[in-house]
Fold this protein.
Amino acid sequence: MEGQPESSDELAPDAIETIVRAAAQVGIDRVKLTGGEPTLRSDVVEIVRRVRPWVGEVSMTTNGLRLEDLAQSLRAAGLRRVNVSLPSLNPEVYRELTGVDGTERVIRGIRAACAAGLDPVKLNVVALSGQTDSPEAMGALLDLAQEVGAQVQLIEFENVRDRVDPRVYRQLHSELGKLTTEAAAQAFRTDRNRLHDRPRYTYLRHGRPATVEVVQPVENPAFCMGCQRLRVTSDGRLKGCLMTNEGLVDLRPLLRSGAPPESFVRAFELAVSRRRPFFTGPETPRPEPEFAPELLPSIGTVPASLPVLGQP
């Protein structure tokens, strides 16, 4: 899973189902399968089928390279919607950023997802200065989105300490403020995704509606404050924030013991208590850590400290 510590272990479908059943008991109603690349798992359709009965929605983020073959089966298994990473429609830029010649395969996968009834299909593009944020590049993505009935999700390139070379960040980081202002000025409808408090703009392009959602964690301090996500690593640990591996809660002792789903509730409570905004503004409130040591005996070995995350 994205941002997780290295591991050679991988949860089996029945273990994933157990965790999702436990999550449902604490009020979690949506599950998103991410990566790495989830479609590389030969049992991804089975995972969707097992998870779907316990939650209101199952979705996926994928590079789209196998979506043409899998879209119908995933939809039949219960997948509702999909985000497809599409950094550029320019084959040379796509190859430079991903290392593969996959533009046409991804486009066919997007079309297959729309045809299968996955809705919405969102095209994820990381805004990179001089490569993917130009009016021409964005215009091409919007044209494709309008043609197939998809949305564009514009994602800020994030400067994460020890994971992004500062020189690369300075070279490629694109200021989204100008693009957001332009989208807002043209929009006939503006709303916000309750997840992360993300702005979403719908405006007319060539006489038809086009929707752009802006994912802006660094420049928008409300983003992290509005995050309601918990992640499960591929080897079975609860992770409160994509950007850090501090405060992981290990579910593997419970899984190995065959504990029933209700036994996992305290583990979820502990993971939630360890969440802190990673990106913060100067005026962002910083709540004091909450830690419940009485939870430890019921969930096996977990880290003994609760660090405050984010920048000073």
In short: The chain is about 35% helix and 20% strand. Residues 135-148 form the longest helix (14 residues). Confidence is low (pLDDT under 50) at residues 282-312.
